[in-house]
Amino acid sequence: MELPNVKDYKLTPGMKVHELVEQMLNAGFQATEIGRAVEIIERMKKNGATIFLSFTANMVAAGLRGVFALLAKKKFVDVIITTGGAIDHDVIKSISSYIIGRFDMDDIDLHKRGINRLGNILIPNDRYVAFENVIQNILSEIYEEKRVITPSELIMEIGKRMKDESSFIYWAYVNKIPIFCPGITDSALGLQVFFFKQTHKDFIIDVTGDMKELADIVFDAKSTGGIILGGGIAKHYTIGVNLLRGGLDYAVYITTAQPWDGSLSGARTTEAISWGKISEKANHVTISGEATVIFPLIIIKVFEDLKIW
Predict the structure, then answer these.
(1) Is residue 115 assigned to a domain?
(2) Domains in the chain: how many in total?
(3) Which site from 30, 97, 217, 277 is most exposed, i.e. has the minimal number of CB atoms within 10 Å?
(4) How far is the C-alpha of 164 from the C-alpha of 242, rounded, in Å?
(5) Domain residues for 89?
(6) What would the pLDDT profile of 224-273 be if each residue is shown by its tens digit?
(7) Residues 8-35: pLDDT tens digits?
(8) pTM
(9) Residue 68 and residue 179: Cα distance in Å, rounded?
(10) How far is it, in rounded angstroms, from Cα 121 to Cα 137?
């Protein structure tokens, strides 16, 4: 097989983002992996794969929330798997904005002022007070209708009440895209459920209740693709359930973690093949880099190529 040559970037006045990404495939290093990710995502979409989107909460606190909302609005993905904190941030940002700070701020001073730092993003405590008021009202409404609920059902109930087109939960509700959250109790939402249960002892979140629906999606799929941003429980829930069908047929990882400590977050797509979580014949790539920079570039190019706008 003849291998392609490295090609220098040719930057021109007025160049569009998708034109720059077009050149990345042959630029080398991680730029080439970005180009390969574009090809794989386009392939999974063209071939009718059931697409799983997995991401961690910090990305929703940042600007990627808007990309996730767009993907749900356009029905580009079929399943979303994330962490409890992603639900927190989505709801809170529908109420009030977050603030850009710096990575080197005085955290003792911030704590005294009631401001939480997430990297270089600042979240004042009053955002969580507003979140508590909203969620407690929603839980009270749900309680009048049912006493046992799965995490995905709870998130859909929240999405139904969002009325905010910048919310990915809202668009998931509108387009009936299930959001699975295996670690829902590890979040501000989980804490609010705990508070609610103090006076509503019979209110139960059945975490295992989502497993059948998720397994049915996997079993019924002609093929499956995973777009996996970051690591942790959301990543493993995505690749783990695909073990049931012999692994993902397509996989794109974007991660800043390294594989040398054996962590799941740092594990490359190749490692998942050894577990049967990605198929031996899969199209797959791992990009080492930060998703807030890389993922929007990929989606712009994919949407342009597939004429999704």
Answers:
(1) no
(2) 1
(3) 97
(4) 32
(5) 48-97+123-291
(6) 999 999 999 999 999 999 999 999 999 999 999 999 999 999 999 999 99
(7) 999 999 999 999 999 999 999 999 999 9
(8) 0.98
(9) 12
(10) 28
Is there a catalytic annotation at residue 45?
Answer: no
192 in any annotated domain: yes
3-state class (DSSP) for residue 280 = strand
User: Closest Cα to residue 46, out of 305, 229, 301?
Assistant: 305
Which listed residue (277, 281, 301, 307) is catalytic?
A: 277
CA–CA gap between residue 188 and residue 106 (Å, rounded):
24
Transcribe 258-270 into DSSP letters.
Answer: -GGG--TTT--HH
Per-residue confidence (pLDDT) for residue 179, from 0 to 100: 98
The CA distance from 108 to 110, in Å, is: 5
The per-residue pLDDT for 138 is 98
Q: Residue 59 is which amino acid?
A: M
Residue 112 lies in a domain: no
Specify if 152 maps to a domain: yes
Q: Report the SS3 class of residue 207.
A: helix
**CATH at 267:** 3.40.910.10
